[in-house]
């Protein structure tokens, strides 16, 4: 995937599609999760991180990087993604870190609370809450945007954020960090992502208000805004099928990003290196503004 100078190649992707939520292992080429390249420096030693959407794509590269940095991990994903999650478990255990897998649907408030309970019973408390899970389905015509899709997209991307933060806060000590995932779509919405782009704007905004609310408890709240990244989300209907081959090529850098290229931003926001940063969103967009 990288050329001789170590840069990621600029290449067309083969046309492909999978049913939601999709498996990273079935993508061609397989996204780069950083397992072979990430170098840790103990920046998250003794930290305990719950990561949603951690089986694949961006969340998977974050989980692997956090483990390289010394954190133990609780990973959430959908039951259909068990095989991707088992791969992540193997990688993290090979690094000598502890990991607990908790599959389940974040659209369900009771499950979101149970996920926090499971993480707290595994760890004792929680120092990093990294919310990466998300739903994105392209729909070119608002006449066809179903109430089911609107409800599912908002429940997954927005409601679960509130449910998880509410449930987690009693277990988070000063010095803890909450990280959300918004998108270039929060500022530059595509015509065919009306519902999804709205959720990402909401997440960016909620990150800022939560940051103000929680600062005096010593808890920082920040976000990462990815641009076009090569992940399952894009090939399960998140992107229009005709856009897949040249996906990401309209960015100034001229290619899609790889999940591994997001990990550094999530590590920075989780670590004490960002102790004076809150209410911020870091763009990792290939230069898109
Ligand atoms: P991905 O498909 O690898 O990850 C999304 C994950 O969300 C899935 O693995 C799944 O485990 C989880 N998920 C979806 N619905 C769920 C539910 N109801 N309950 C529990 N988990 C659920 O794709 P990705 O691109 O790595 O997505 C990660 C995040 O990055 C998302 O929030 C997405 O909106 C955001 N993002 C992605 C891009 C991109 O170009 N790939 C760009 C901007 C933002
Ligand atoms: Mg997945």
UniProtKB/TrEMBL annotation:
Annotated keywords: Oxidoreductase
Chain intervals for the UniProt region annotation (Disordered): 1-36
Record has Oxidoreductase as a keyword: yes
Gene3D superfamilies: NAD(P)-binding Rossmann-like Domain (3.40.50.720)
InterPro entries, sorted: NAD(P)-bd_dom_sf, Sc_DH/Rdtase_CS, SDR_fam
Molecular-function annotations in GO: oxidoreductase activity, acting on CH-OH group of donors
Pfam families assigned: adh_short_C2
EC number(s) per entry: 1.-.-.-
PANTHER family (alphabetical): NADPH-DEPENDENT ALDEHYDE REDUCTASE 1, CHLOROPLASTIC, NADPH-DEPENDENT ALDEHYDE REDUCTASE-LIKE PROTEIN, CHLOROPLASTIC-RELATED
Similarity-based family: Belongs to the short-chain dehydrogenases/reductases (SDR) family.
Record-given protein name: Oxidoreductase YghA
The organism of origin for this protein: Leuconostoc suionicum
């Amino acid at each position: 995937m990288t050329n001789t100078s170590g840069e990621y190649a600029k290449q067309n992707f083969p046309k492909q599609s999978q049913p939601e939520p999709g498996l990273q292992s079935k993508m061609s080429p397989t996204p780069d999760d950083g397992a072979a390249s990430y170098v840790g420096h103990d920046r998250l030693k003794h930290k305990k991180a719950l990561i949603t959407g951690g089986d694949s794509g961006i969340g998977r590269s974050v989980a692997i990087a956090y483990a390289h940095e010394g954190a133990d991990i609780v990973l959430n994903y959908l039951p259909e993604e068990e095989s991707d999650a088992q791969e992540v478990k193997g990688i993290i255990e090979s690094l000598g870190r502890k990991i607990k897998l908790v599959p389940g649907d974040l659209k369900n408030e009771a499950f979101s609370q149970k996920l926090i309970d499971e993480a707290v019973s595994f760890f004792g408390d929680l120092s990093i809450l990294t919310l990466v899970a998300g739903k994105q389905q392209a729909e070119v015509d608002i006449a066809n945007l179903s109430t089911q899709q609107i409800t599912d997209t908002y429940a997954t991307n927005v409601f679960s954020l509130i449910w998880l933060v509410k449930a987690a806060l009693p277990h988070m000590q000063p010095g803890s960090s909450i990280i959300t995932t918004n998108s270039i779509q929060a500022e530059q919405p595509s015509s065919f992502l009306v519902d999804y782009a709205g959720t990402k704007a909401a997440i960016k905004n909620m990150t800022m208000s939560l940051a103000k609310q929680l600062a005096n408890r010593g808890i920082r709240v920040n976000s990462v805004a990815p641009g076009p990244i090569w992940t399952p989300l894009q090939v399960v209907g998140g992107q229009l099928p005709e856009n897949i081959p040249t996906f990401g090529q309209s960015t100034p850098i001229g290619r899609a990003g790889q999940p591994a290229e997001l990990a550094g931003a999530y590590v920075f926001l989780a670590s004490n290196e960002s102790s004076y940063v809150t209410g911020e969103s870091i763009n990792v967009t290939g230069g898109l503004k």
